[in-house]
């Protein structure tokens, strides 16, 4: 690793030296002096400022860039072009017409020549040692590009309109000055050429709005760069900067409006076939009904009910792996047609028409992300199921959506886009001041749910999760009706949570902490314990309930700051065993449970004094502490507190 970093630093310094050498070589060739004339210092600073991001964006610091000669050569050519574009843009935009064209363009050309010369020498001398990477398999020939004629014509009209509107804004007339015909023709040529080069109108760019806008932005940036180079290289500074750059900005704005309208129209047209009305849902269900007194076929070899044949057809066309997933978890042959309901709905209406306690299997194909009142929907399904009945649903979980989001959107834009998506679909519906506006705008559709929240809501509503399966269609789950719903309390999304814990003499106390888990995670403690092992420290291994920011909070104990309030109230002491939930406490030996409840729990646990490795070691550590505390309270407290400080401050012990 140190060797790689050293080579990267060497490449950085070498490229910086070649750029500087190119600048002074051109300066000497033009003026026969090495001294910087007035104004040239600013040019050199501009070159350095633009070179730095270009160096890293072009990945010239990475060694794999130089595994192939052709690849490295292409990187050098791109870097020189981008430096030329950037410098020309700055000079034209700030109207620096006195800047030497020989110095600027010559520096970029000399830099490219020196880099290519050095690269060729390096490959001739060390190519066999460097070029150890196997050639990538040949890509299949690309198909014939498919363009959208309507958008080409529309963009042509918008481009012409933008040019004349900017002229009207500047001169108060649509009539162009005579010398502006050159610029007009130049712009048309660049627009046509760059639209083809960037594949702006190919249908592949219209998979969604963001790819289409990315192509527009790319084309506008290249047009601005090319025009800047032409104006600078040929000294055409008499062209108005407002006309040059204003046309591009106005064109980009009008393109954004056009594409937004285009995608809205296409989206509306694609939604016409959805089942959206109650009548439609009833017709869908009516195709599957059998006489109520139909007997369920028995035995694994019995033919599948008609509902299962319909389910096979639906899964085969839309969700290929779903049927095998359900069939592997449930005995479908024991279910009759009258005990099964196949739904595709976003609200409670389609569930409310079903008879209470009449079903043994309910399958909803609609994403729960589009259900406005999710808990009410779960509770309605719970009411329609017999005891022990099954509910199958699917969710586009936060984790899966983020992974797909990063594959779906263009690079360099996706982080910004995802931040806005997260704030809108994840944060807004959970804040009291903004959730009304959110549900007014979205009608509750495309809300973001994490895997932990989805499963936790099921447990909250009286279900037990039996199986999960992730695929390209989302996260499918099978839940069983096993308990009555937990309607006695309402989980919150507040950043400060209240956890039920066992305190002194077995009394229930509420411990306050900063939220580090997804909402409803508190209902998944038994589920995570059954499906995940305990790691060193006694905590759940690979606990999916913990949010990304929660891991940072836990590492530095930031989540435990609100527990100071419990300490001030006298519910816990400064040092002592952690207050546990009833489920976690039940994992302890009965003798340790009894000793634990005879002592008030604490804020700082003895775990950091002994640093035990496993759950059994933690139990023994707490037992030793509790027995020592009963014999010598103050001495034990001081001793353990000093050992804890030593492990945290000197040995770097951290929470996980």
Average pLDDT, rounded to a whole number, is 77
Reported for the largest beta sheet, the result is:
5 strands, mixed
The DSSP helix count reads 25
Measured by DSSP, the beta-strand proportion falls in 5-15%
Secondary structure: helix percent: 55-70%
Strand order of the largest sheet: 1-2-3-5-4
The count of domains is: 5
Structural class: alpha/beta
- Low-confidence spans: 128-144, 267-302
**Cα Rg:** 34 Å
Shape: extended
How many angstroms separate the termini? 27 Å
Quantity of strands, as a count:
9
Topology:
Blueprint: H1 2-31, H2 40-57, H3 69-93, H4 101-130, H5 149-171, H6 180-197, H7 209-233, H8 241-270, H9 278-286, H10 306-317, H11 322-329, E1 340-343, H12 349-352, E2 359-367, H13 374-384, E3 385-395, H14 398-408, H15 414-427, H16 432-442, H17 451-460, E4 463-471, E5 474-481, E6 496-502, E7 508-514, H18 525-531, H19 548-555, H20 563-568, E8 573-575, H21 582-586, H22 590-597, E9 602-604, H23 607-610, H24 615-631, H25 633-649
Parallel strand pairs: 1-2, 2-3, 8-9
Antiparallel strand pairs: 3-5, 4-5, 6-7
């Amino acid at each position: 690793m140190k060797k790689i970093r050293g080579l990267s630093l060497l490449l950085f310094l070498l490229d910086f030296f070649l750029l500087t050498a190119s600048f002074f070589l051109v300066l000497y060739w033009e003026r026969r002096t090495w001294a910087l004339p007035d104004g040239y210092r600013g040019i050199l600073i501009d070159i350095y400022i633009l070179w730095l991001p270009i160096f890293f964006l072009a990945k010239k610091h990475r060694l794999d860039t130089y595994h192939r000669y052709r690849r490295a050569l292409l990187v050098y050519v791109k870097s020189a072009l981008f430096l030329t574009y950037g410098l020309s843009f700055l000079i034209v935009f700030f109207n620096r017409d006195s800047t030497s064209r020989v110095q600027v363009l010559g520096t970029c050309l000399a830099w490219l020549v020196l880099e290519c010369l050095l690269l060729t020498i390096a490959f001739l001398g060390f190519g066999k040692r460097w070029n150890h990477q196997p050639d990538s398999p040949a890509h299949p020939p690309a198909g014939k590009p498919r363009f959208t004629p309507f958008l080409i014509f529309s963009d042509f009209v918008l481009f012409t309109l933008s040019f004349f509107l900017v002229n009207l804004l500047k001169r108060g007339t649509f009539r162009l000055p005579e010398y502006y015909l050159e610029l007009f023709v130049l712009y048309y040529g660049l627009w046509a050429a760059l639209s083809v080069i960037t594949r702006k109108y190919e249908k592949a760019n219209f998979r969604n709005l963001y790819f289409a806008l990315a192509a527009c932005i790319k084309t506008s940036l290249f047009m601005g760069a090319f025009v800047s180079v032409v104006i600078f290289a040929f000294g055409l500074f008499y062209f108005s900067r407002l006309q040059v750059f204003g046309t591009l900005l106005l064109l980009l704005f009008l393109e954004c409006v056009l594409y937004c309208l285009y995608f809205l129209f296409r989206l509306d047209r694609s939604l016409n076939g959805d089942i959206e009305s109650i009548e439609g849902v009833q017709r869908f269900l009516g195709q599957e009904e059998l006489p109520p007194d139909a007997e369920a076929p028995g035995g694994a070899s019995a033919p599948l009910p008609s509902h299962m044949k319909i389910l096979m057809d639906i899964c085969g066309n839309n969700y290929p792996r779903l049927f095998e997933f359900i069939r592997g978890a449930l005995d479908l042959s024991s279910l009759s047609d009258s005990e099964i309901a196949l739904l595709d709905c976003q609200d409670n209406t389609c569930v409310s028409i079903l008879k209470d306690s009449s079903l043994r299997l309910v399958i909803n194909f609609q994403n729960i992300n589009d259900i406005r009142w999710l808990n009410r929907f779960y509770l309605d399904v719970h009411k329609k199921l017999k005891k022990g009945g099954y509910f199958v649903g699917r969710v586009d979980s936060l984790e899966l959506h983020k992974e797909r989001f990063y594959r779906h959107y263009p690079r360099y834009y996706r982080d910004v886009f995802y931040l806005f998506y997260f704030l809108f679909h994840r944060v807004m519906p959970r804040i009291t001041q903004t959730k009304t506006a959110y549900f007014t705008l979205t009608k509750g559709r495309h809300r973001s749910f994490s895997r932990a929240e989805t499963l936790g809501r099921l447990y909250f509503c009286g279900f037990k999760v039996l199986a999960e399966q992730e695929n390209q269609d989302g996260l499918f789950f099978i839940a069983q009706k096993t308990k009555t719903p937990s309607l006695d309390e309402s989980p919150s999304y507040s950043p400060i949570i209240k956890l039920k814990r066992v305190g002194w003499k077995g009394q229930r106390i509420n411990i306050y902490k900063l939220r580090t888990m997804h909402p409803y995670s508190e209902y998944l403690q038994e589920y995570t314990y059954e499906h995940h092992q305990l790691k060193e420290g006694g905590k759940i291994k690979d606990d999916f309930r913990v949010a990304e920011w929660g891991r940072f909070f836990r590492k530095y104990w930031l989540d435990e700051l609100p527990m100071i309030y419990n300490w001030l109230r006298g519910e816990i002491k400064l040092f002592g065993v952690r207050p546990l939930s009833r489920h976690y406490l039940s994992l302890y030996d009965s003798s340790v449970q009894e000793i634990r409840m005879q002592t008030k729990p604490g804020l700082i646990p003895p775990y950091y004094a002994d640093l035990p490795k496993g759950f059994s070691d933690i139990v023994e550590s707490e037992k030793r502490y509790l027995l020592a505390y009963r014999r010598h309270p103050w001495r034990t407290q001081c001793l353990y507190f000093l050992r804890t400080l030593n492990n945290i401050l000197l040995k770097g012990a951290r929470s996980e």
